[in-house]
Amino acid sequence: MALFKRGKTWWTDFSVNGMRFRLSLETTDWREAQSLERQKITQANAGKLAPSNQQFARLAFSEALDRYLADRSVRVTPGSKRSESDHAKPVRAFFGLTQVSRISSDDIISYIRQRSEKKISNTTINMEIGILRRVLTRARIWNFVANDVPRLPERRDIGRAMSYEQKAHLLRVAGAKPGWETARLAALLTLNTTMRGCELKGLHWGDVDFIERTITVRRSKTDAGERVIPLNDDSWNTILALRARARKLFGEKLDCSWHVFPRAEGCSKPDPKRPMSGWRTAWRSLTRAVECPECGQLQQPAETCGKFNCQTDIRSLKSSLHGLRFHDLRHHAITELAESMASERTIMAIAGHVSPKMLDHYSHVRVQAKRQALDALSARGASTAKVGEVKEGYGTKRVTNPQSKWVPFVQVLEKNGGDDETRTRDLCRDRAAF
């Protein structure tokens, strides 16, 4: 253990359990340096301090992030790999060439503030900080800043169920333009099967049973997501439309390994062996589209109507579907299942849930359905009752009152197993006890 100076700054050099620690105390005061040295030794004994030969903490953050993502890619699915890579981009842009060991809690809080000012959701910011946390944990630095970095509150009630008018409006608008056809077919499948977007993208033609009219979800977000879903008339017609479109693109004979939603379907060279990356652009366009009140033309929000002969002011128009996520269609489908009086077990078998808590999260039973259920209570017997007439109850009036006379309590105990003679002796002995 030794204190020494580099310029005017005090440094410490000590070893704990055979590991050498050589680091700056960032002070010019000798007494303060002694106190800081004892703190560093305590942290080293607790395993909260990186040794001097730990090269990861000395890397620039961009290089350390690349190493982390490369090591992480072998342990996660391709979807999780893409998600982490996307969420790491703003973190990389902010910290860039900053040395990992020099990232402080003030830097992280500044990053959170900057992202919040750009109206980024708390959930997204927490996911980005999660990547930063795992990089700093590997460098054994996170423990120094963890207490000062808050976890932003996240909404737990995210989800939306449409009204019947909104659902009809969605399907009508989605069918208005050929460029929205893929999003329309995907929406129809989700509304009639509760399938997630990732499940649709991973669906192969071998997963569709044309004899039994079922879809087998083989890979999903959770193990409970692996399930068999029967197809109703709407979802069956959607599958037939997708098959007709695939035959038009790739020929009459479809390979079982081909994707139902192939990659680059709208381009000149679609690839059925790779899944579609998504329909985000089309979905945003169709959910934000508005109709001009004068000419009825469907268009994106603007100051004036895009039709040359109209030019009506439409800046105040906003679609009733604005902000509707594709995943909300799953919420809506589960809501309709709940309102159809299907049992929880049936709904969880169709939707792939593992607990009633998740079912409550996805189900948004509408007020109208609740009102109908309560109306059934008031309608039962109340409509036929006359004024001043008192009807008898269901026999629950004196069930809990004590009985006036003592009635002997007779208990018959039956012994499981054994022959009839044995059970008879036991029964007689039990009765004799009274």
Q: Would you give an account of this structure?
A:
The structure is a single chain. The protein is mostly helical and 434 residues long. Among the domains are: 2-53, no CATH class; 57-148, DNA polymerase, domain 1. It is built from 16 helices and 10 strands. It has helices spanning 30-45, 61-72, 78-95, 105-117, 122-138, 142-145, 164-174, 181-193, 197-201, 233-250, 280-288, 328-339, 344-351, 356-362, 367-379, 420-432; strands at 2-6, 9-16, 19-24, 208-209, 214-217, 227-230, 262-263, 271-275, 290-291, 298-299. The chain has a 3-stranded antiparallel β-sheet, with helices on one face. Helix 8 (181-193) packs parallel to helix 12. 22% of the residues are buried.
Would you summarize the structure shown here?
The chain has 434 residues and is mainly α.
The CATH architecture of the domain at 57-148 can be given as Orthogonal Bundle
Radius of gyration, in Å, reads 33 Å
Report, as a whole number of angstroms, the end-to-end distance: 85 Å
Fraction of residues in H or I helices = 40-55%
Main sheet makeup: 3 strands, antiparallel
Tally of helical runs: 16
Inertia-based shape: elongated
Count of extended strands: 10
CATH topology of the domain at 57-148: DNA polymerase, domain 1
β content, as a range?
5-15%
Pairing-aware structural class of the strands and helices? Answer: mainly alpha
Identify the strand order in the major beta sheet: 1-2-3
pLDDT averaged over residues = 81
Instruction: Give the SSE order as H and E letters.
Output: EEEHHHHHHHHHEEEHEEHEEHHHHH
Instruction: Give start-end ranges of low-pLDDT stretches.
Output: 409-434
- CATH domain class name of the domain at 57-148: Mainly Alpha
